[in-house]
User: Fold Helix-turn-helix transcriptional regulator from Aequorivita vitellina.
Amino acid sequence: MPQDYEGVVTIWKQKYSDKISSYTPYKVTQQFERFAKLFAPGDSYFYILNFHDLSLDYISESVERIVDIAHSEVSISDLLAPALPEELKKLERKEILIDHFFNTYLSMEELTSYKAVHCYRIKDKNDNLRTMLLQTMVLTQDDMGNIQHVLTIHSDVSHLKIMSTDNVSFIHLNNGTSYYNLNPNKPFKAQITNPTETLLYDALTKREREVVNYLAKGYNADNIAEQLFLSIHTVRTHKKNILRKTKCSNVAELVAQCLMSGHIL
Assistant:
């Protein structure tokens, strides 16, 4: 494995693998696979990582859009390989923060209630630069409560023009307290005394949410009007009201905040 990856892998080995005494494979059902695909739209792939030995118990065929390797032969090192060199140190710091959140801050009972979300940049097999959204959540724990299997989804969000790839968000999956845009360079506890309030997405009407979802897909006002059977004027009014309610200065900021807060994708 290339030396550049050792920082990330060492964290996984020390914080997860060394605590798990035996290998237990994760059995993927057709129902689980269909469910996972709902959260991996567009150019996405997903996998189940077994922390016992950092093997992949499952990986979707769509990974072949990113790496020039048959999905059945892909390893975790192959998934790290496309990351830009400057992203690897960032990924290492993010993993330290993620480890602290899941293994120190949360109780064993809370581990499956959160997902970690962040972005990073890669070059795919065709040398195209992409920004990938990474979402990871705990699937199982061993008898001691140690994290054993995680589901991770990587989605190409390059079209959203997200500029920052540094921060990490921890999203509660059942409307509990979430923590947004945490800086991996700062101590976790120093950032949680006043967790960032969720984006005012919940204050939007059903129609406004539909408009946001189409904006996230890169649709313009004409396209959205056609999809929702509205006039262009009505769509533009919705857009103006959405930006006002969410206090975002432009669509790129709006979509980025919705994305990182788990409201879309």
Summary: The chain is about 35% helix and 20% strand. The mean pLDDT is 87.
